[in-house]
Queue: 2 jobs
Job 1
Amino acid sequence: MNIKEQRLQELTKIAPTVSVRMDMEWLSSTSNTADFQIRLTSTGTTVVKLNALIIRGVHAPKITTGAISWKALNNNTDPLWLGWPKVTTNLPYISGQRKLNFSSATNIFTNETAPIIPTGDGVVVGTFRVSTTTSWNPNTDFKFVWEMTTGGVVGYVNFETESSTSLLPVGFMHYGPTTNTTIGKCLTVTASSAQPLNK
């Protein structure tokens, strides 16, 4: 059995016990900014650790006449999270598609230093601020919707059991099958039902 076959066998075996939820939670807005946070929660029976995550989705049209940008506030003070996501520049935004498109760095954590994604209330991994160069249009809602065919969370499983693949990160996806690098359909993504702007 080669390492890819071994990896597929291991992930297929553990897949039914791995379950993660990623929530986009709306916080507040001003006339030209809006803040939201990302919460991760482990809802399965296997302990999982974070390596990286992808925030990818679109917002409503006609919410402003200005140019939109967004950034991480880097206000996670939990020392285990090592200042994640450690990005001080504006995050990728595809204006023609109204798409937030951020993938965090995969070299911040190793399988040894990666923080555990907790159960229960989970953990707020980061807060983000969206801005416009003018102001939000009256009576608008951001209406962020996750992209459902790409993205996800990258992390570690089986790190308590000796395995030749334990050092390798695995993708936790809300779509697709389980492969030798990903566990499919183990991630649930949600977003706040109300995301009011300029309120």
Job 2
Amino acid sequence: MLETYELTRAAGFGDEVKRRIMIGAYVLSAGYYDAYYLKALKVRRRIADDFDQAWQTCDAPADAHGAQRGFPARRPVG
């Protein structure tokens, strides 16, 4: 059963993903909580606050796109 578990857990992740998971676990457990995780939470909160403030002044986002498909790649426009 342990072999099956190890094979299935490792099958979907590449080396870089595994490395990032291990680094994240280390950072949270090695006393780096304030330096990294807490700082990231504060940044996420500021971004959310900025979006909340933006939604107070408009009802829908404006974006530079239309209802039609884009031009095919490498085709001159005009």
